[in-house]
Amino acid sequence: MSIFGRRDNAGSSSGSSGGSQDSTLASSSASSASSGSRPQQRRITHVAPGTHIRGEVTGSTELLVEGVIEGEIRVDAPVMIGAEGVVQGPVSGQVVRIGGRVVGNVSAGDRVEVATSGTLEGDIQAPRIVIAEGAFFKGRVEMKNEKTEKPAEKPAEKSDRDKAAEEARRPKVGVEPGRSTKATAESGKP
């Protein structure tokens, strides 16, 4: 079956150079139609070159931006900004790869990568960051791992041992440095 829905009796052993390509595309489309027996195909949302979007982009599929997006991107999957792609606004995804231009803060659950052709003007927040030689970056970097980060807790009560150690470190009032603070029997004499 070809990509256009007609049956191809020659199959993949067709003599033309395009026949194997058609059968490859047909098997690709057939496998996506019958997802019961094969693993699910990778799904990508593609913003093509020449496309201009204003607003918020959210979702759970991979996003490939080769056009222009003015607004926030929040995706629970990888986000790729192609070499011709432009994003003006914050970007958040599992992995963010920048090959084009981003003007806005970028946060990722796993990592942020700025390719040689990439430009990023904004702050980065991710556990891992890769900035290729030749890439342009202007902003701040905050690397923190959400898995190991604990919520702020109240300071624990000091134990008796900690209190004694702190008391020993405090300077004594009225005592000369280097002199013992122990009282002796003679200390009361003139």
Q: Care to describe what's here?
A:
The protein has 190 residues and is α/β, with parallel strands linked by helices. Helix content is 14%, strand content 32%.
Q: What would the keywords be for this entry?
A:
disordered N terminus; 10-stranded parallel beta sheet; alpha/beta; 190 residues; 2 helices; single chain; 32% strand
Integer average pLDDT: 75
Number of helices: 2
Distance between the termini: 115 Å
Strand content: 25-35%
Q: Can you summarize the main beta sheet? A: 10 strands, parallel
Q: Based on the structure, what is the oligomeric state of the protein chains?
A: single chain
SS elements, strand count: 16
Question: Are there runs of 5+ residues with pLDDT below 50, and where?
Answer: 1-36, 148-152, 183-187
SSE order in H/E notation?
HEEEEEEEEEEEEEEEEH
Helix content: 10-25%
By helix and strand content, what is the structural category?
alpha/beta
Radius of gyration using CA atoms only: 32 Å
Overall shape: it is: elongated
